[in-house]
Write a structure and sequence with these properties.
This protein is α/β, with parallel strands linked by helices. It has two domains: about 5-105, Response regulator (Rossmann fold); about 110-160. The protein has six helices and four strands, in the order βαβαβααβαα.
Length: about 160
């Protein structure tokens, strides 16, 4: 999976961090020097992670809220790039990216379980209805309904496996 990181911070502070992230995390990193450029980047590209210089967020809280809203599924980390050194930011970015992957795995697993349960319930209904119809079927309809009962039963068993 390709990792793309957006850094919203003045270029002077962002470049050493961007280089460290590229090297350590093998990530594509884009730098937006101010909030408006960051917002434009978020609107045109989906990112795995957004790093925001906390001073930009403090100066314009409403603008920061817009960044969070437009980040989509990407986690946003507010960091002080002056105080935090590259190794610390790399660790935090690595952790945030790992959490995002874990959240995605959990969400997919939950969706699979939900879909499996819905399909199983529908197939159980089809199976019961077709078994009832088979009991009342005429001799000419019975082979077709028997085949339908077998197909529904096979599908339900495959879903359970």
């Amino acid at each position: 999976m390709s990792r793309t990181i957006l850094i919203i911070a003045p270029a002077l502070a962002a470049e050493p961090i961007a280089n460290a992230l590229r090297e350590e995390l093998d990530a594509a990193v884009e730098v937006a020097p101010q909030r408006r450029a960051g917002l434009a980047a978020l609107r045109r590209t989906e990112y795995s992670l957004v790093l925001l210089e906390e001073s930009l967020a403090e100066l314009d809280p409403r603008g920061a809220d817009l960044l969070y809203q437009n980040a989509g599924a990407a986690p946003v980390l507010e960091l002080n790039f002056v105080i935090s050194k590259a190794p610390r930011i790399v660790r935090q970015a690595r952790s945030a990216l790992a959490h995002r992957v874990q959240d995605g795995v959990k969400a997919r697993a939950a969706a699979i379980v939900e879909l499996r349960n819905e399909l199983s319930a529908s197939l159980t209904g089809i199976l019961l209805e077709s078994e009832l119809a088979l009991r009342e079927a005429s001799p000419s309809q019975a082979p077709k309904l028997k085949n339908l009962v077998e197909l529904a039963g096979t599908l339900r068993n495959r879903l359970r496996a």
